[in-house]
Amino acid sequence: MKVAAIVIGRNEGARLIACLDALSGRADPVIYVDSGSTDGSVAAAQARGAQVIALDMTQPFTAARARNAGLAALPADAELVQLLDGDCVLRDGWIETARSFLADHPQAAVACGRRRERHPEASTYNALIDAEWNTAVGQARACGGDALMRVAALRAVGGYRDTLIAGEEPELCVRLRAEGWQVWRLEAEMTWHDADITRFGQWWKRTRRAGHAFAEGAALHGAPPERHWVTETRRALTWGAGLPLAILVLAVFLTPWALLLLLVYPLQVLRLSRRGGVAQATFTVLGKFPEAQGALQYLLGRRRGRIIEYK
After folding, report:
1. Which of 112, 198, 199, 206 has a beta carbon 3.0–4.6 Å from 310's, enabling a disulfide?
2. Contact 172, 124 (CB under 8 A)
């Protein structure tokens, strides 16, 4: 089965060059969709033989829109497509492993594998993201931005949803599974990822972006039986907005002693730390505040059609 590749990026610099170099000889064509880079990414991609598509930045930008632009440019004989973010590098042997799996599993539309952070030691945030990628193998409900997919299945469901700020891959997988397709995560090394998150503000924006995705995903597919991201949205709004607001109201109108109820947050950290350690528990609880911010931004109709960037 013929494999093409679509890479999306914006000002990824050396990471994009590494991404494209790792695809050499493994996919044909390699399509790079650029979203307004100013760092020479377009020239670097062209120098490496990639077909370059420059998005019209007068239109609202989303990663989903970039991926769809790449899909529209695929040749008619492309059966499989490797989707990649420009900050990721393909691992040796992944294409062969995933292609073989899809050949043996005709109901599988998506095969993804292990995505690892290249520098988890560089910051607490990178380490947390590395742990985030460590999901269970087997048949799955969703994939991330890196995956080998059947082109026919993608086209049958209309590709990605252009307007989504984030969470476009899980939303796509909801529609694929509704049509009888399967999503699989393999126990195989797929990509190196370079988050390069070293500042608290970057982590906050990334987590806010996730909250926006939760709320929008729940609005699209929150009805039974899917209940897509309903629980995640409810938790974000409860812990990140509803509970602190209720405590504040009680403290102002009833008694200042109500502020002691804020101890529920360190208690929650203590409870969660028994499973994943103190750092992961702390940021899981703290993350509910930017998640709630992102969810409320969606619910209030703000920033729709614009990506929330954190790099």
Report:
1. 206
2. no
DSSP 91: P
Residue type, 117: E
Q: How far is Cα 105 from Cα 107, in angstroms, rounded to an integer?
A: 6
Residue 164 exposed, middle or buried by CB count within 10 Å (0-12, 13-18, 19+): buried
Rounded Cα distance, 288 and 57, in Å: 32
* Structural domains present in the chain: 3-198 (3.90.550.10), 214-299 (no CATH)
pLDDT attached to residue 309: 54
Instruction: For residue 30, list its beta bridge partners.
Output: 5
Q: How far apart are CA 57 and CA 34, in angstroms?
A: 10
Mean pLDDT of 190-200: 94
Give the predicted TM-score (pTM) of the model.
0.91
- Segment 225-246, tens digit of pLDDT: 999 999 999 999 999 999 999 9
Alpha carbon distance 154, 176 (integer Å) = 8
- Phi then psi for 28, rounded to 5 degrees? -155, 115
